[in-house]
Amino acid sequence: MLFDRQLWRQARSHSLALLFTLVSGLGAAVFTLLQAYYIARLVNAAFLEGMLPGELWRGIWPVAVAIILRAIFQYLTDITSAEIGLRIKENLREKVLEKVQSTGALTRSIDRSGETISTLTDGLETLDPYFSQYVPQLLLAAVVPLAILMSITKNDWLSFAVLLVTAPLLPVFMILLGSISQKSTNAQWQKLHRLGSFFYETIQGIHVLLSFNVAKERGQELEEKDEDYRSLTMQVLRLTFLSAFVLEFISTIGTAVIAVEIGLRLLNGSLEFRTALFVLLLAPEFYLPLRQLGARFHAGMSGKAAAVQVFNLLGEEPDQLGMKLSSHPPFSPQVENNPSILKGKTYADYSRYFPIRLEAITARYPDAEREVLSKIDLSLNQGTHLALIGPSGEGKTTLAMILMGILLPVEGRLTFGGIPASDYPVNELSKLFCWVPQTPYIFAGTIAENICLFDPQAQDEVIREAGRSAMLDSWLQELPDGYQTKVGERGFTISTGQAQRLALARAFYRNSPILILDEPTASLDVALEADLVRSIEILTRGRTVVNIAHRMGSIRNSSMVFRVEEGRLRPVSQIHENDLLPSQTDRTVEGGH
User: Fold this and answer.
1) Which residues of 47-80 are buried (b: 16+ CB within 10 A; e: fewer)?
2) What is the largest CA-CA distance in the chain?
3) Which long-range contacts (CB under 8 A, 24 or more apart) does 57-63 make?
4) pLDDT by residue (tens digit) across 176-206?
5) Across all residues in the chain, what is the average pLDDT?
6) Closest residue by Cα to residue 508 from 342, 348, 339
């Protein structure tokens, strides 16, 4: 009956709320029984016992009370079940976001971004009705009909037998039809994910499609995929409506059989009218939970299919990712005798994280046979300026990703201050690092939001000071809205140099003690590079720096230089032009290494 261990594990974490939902449903069932009993007694007294009109009011108020209390208990059941679905959905959304954040670069190399977005939106939203509708109704369908059967047993054994025989037909047909539609539902979700990925990639690359004049062809492909998804969705809906029709038909036949056999016994005088009316009023109520379960069976199937995508994205639990909670206090850089976080560059307490050691580190990307890094040993002391040089694709960025905890090594150990990285919380170590990549990602939003990365507690003065330190003032003065100027996704409305300045402003704002520079000036012209180099020199003062270098000028102040080649680290004492990219050896090193 659509059991999924991982989903039910999520439901068990809200066992008290589920218990309250079950109790509320039972309360509604009890007052349903009382409502039928009092209505049957009232009708019998009015038409067969000759009760006077003035005395009928004494029989009406119990009926009214039963109806009101039944509605209250039903309302409590709906509210509690909806709260269960909301809490579980939000809990899973937080876990998925944490997984995407903690393994961002690695995850993106496995799963396509469109599928991730589809899981975060449609997938998690589909789990809501699974927990808020299907799971509570499954519990009620197992208990409420049983309570009604017990109440009918003492009054009418023949009606009890009819209900007992017809009731199992509903779940049997539900399972049969469900097994047929389950494959279509799974295929529907897979197609939705592929469509989401295709659409997301189309939006991200729309400027490229327009540049090559192939946007129309791409639009036709998108329309074809959309039509395939629509056709499959209609197929699932046809099966859903067929299932609902079968369940309604069986419950209607069952109620009709009850009505016929009660009517025949009333005619021959073998059954009292009050008992007959009581049973006849309860017959539809007996089938109602089972019919509602059938109506929500599709929500259960969709939820189970969506759960596959959600838990595939979650993959391993956080403690299997090499990071877990510990008793260490969270890192918080402090500045001595200076209210501004951007001045002074003096940190009171982060020496306990040093030295940072990589011991026999071996790295390999998923589905890749070749090791990117092999048996890497490295030690970084506080204030060290490390430069990594060598050809592209040899593992320089991979080494930086391991340091930041984005990529986990397949072998070896990473320690901070002698403590394994796995003993620190993810959030604690992430605050140590700031990464300035060669191609920074710019979000759709204002310049201020891109600097503070949508920090809800950001202060305008701190944002402006970060912008001044990154030499953004001359550009922002030309803009009518200044820091509130909106920019496009991926920096579509700004230049490469302006995007790099924004990335530096982020680093100034974040003010982390360890700076990872992935050659942020590599794609800039000489004049613009000189301005950014001055900002970078200010940014690196007093910090530990790992510089992935492609130009000789960027490693001028490095205290250690290593060449990364064939997955190995080789110390460099003197730089030659062939140590860097051939097209980027336009600088010389002063005072070689």
Assistant:
1) eeeeeeeeeeeebeebbeebbebbeebbebbbeb
2) 116
3) 62/34, 62/38, 63/35, 63/38, 63/39
4) 776 677 777 777 777 877 787 788 778 777 7
5) 77
6) 342
CA distances from residue 583 to 207, 556, 562 in whole angstroms, order as listed: 28, 18, 20
Q: Which residues contact 184 (CB under 8 A, 6 or more apart)?
A: 232, 235, 236, 239
Q: What phi and psi values does residue 542 have, to the nearest 5 degrees?
A: 80, 5
H-helix or E-strand containing 240? helix 215-267
DSSP state of 123: I
Strand pairing category for 544-548 and 514-518: parallel
Collapsing DSSP to helix, strand or coil, 588 comes out as coil
Measured distance between the N- and C-terminal CA atoms of the chain, rounded to whole angstroms: 69
**Residue 443 contacts residue 449 (beta carbons within 8 Å):** yes
Residue whose C-alpha is closest to residue 294's, from 243, 251, 253: 243
Q: Which residues contact 325 (CB under 8 A, 6 or more apart)?
A: 425
Domains of the chain: 81-314 (1.20.1560.10), 353-432+514-593 (3.40.50.300), 439-511 (3.40.50.300)
Highest mean pLDDT among 321-325, 493-497, 522-526: 493-497
Q: Contact, 544 vs 552, CB < 8 A? A: no
Choose among 499, 506, 491: nearest CA to 449: 506
**Is the confidence at residue 65, as pLDDT, over 90?**
yes
Q: Are strands 411-416 and 356-363 parallel, antiparallel or unpaired?
A: antiparallel
Tokens of 282: 């309860």
What whole-number distance in Å separates Cα of residue 550 and Cα of residue 191? Answer: 42
Cross-strand partners of 414: 358
DSSP 335: B
Strands (E), 352-432: 356-363, 373-380, 385-389, 411-416, 419-420
Q: What angle do CA 420, 403, 438 make, to 5 degrees?
A: 170
Is the pLDDT confidence value at 479 over 50?
A: yes
Please, which residues bridge with residue 561 across strands?
A: 387
Confidence class of residue 574 from pLDDT cuts 50, 70 and 90? low
| Count of Cβ atoms closer than 10 Å to residue 530 Cβ | 12
Evaluate the CA torsion angle 166, 168, 173, 178 in order and state its sign: positive
Assess whether pLDDT exceeds 70 at residue 569: yes
DSSP state, residue 390: S
**Rounded CA separation 11/14 (Å):** 5
C-alpha angle 159/160/166, rounded to 5°? Answer: 90
- Tell me if 24 sits within 8 A of 143, measured CB to CB: no
In which element (H, E) is residue 563 found? Answer: strand 560-565
Rounded to an integer, what distance in angstroms lies between the CA atom of residue 438 and that of residue 451?
16
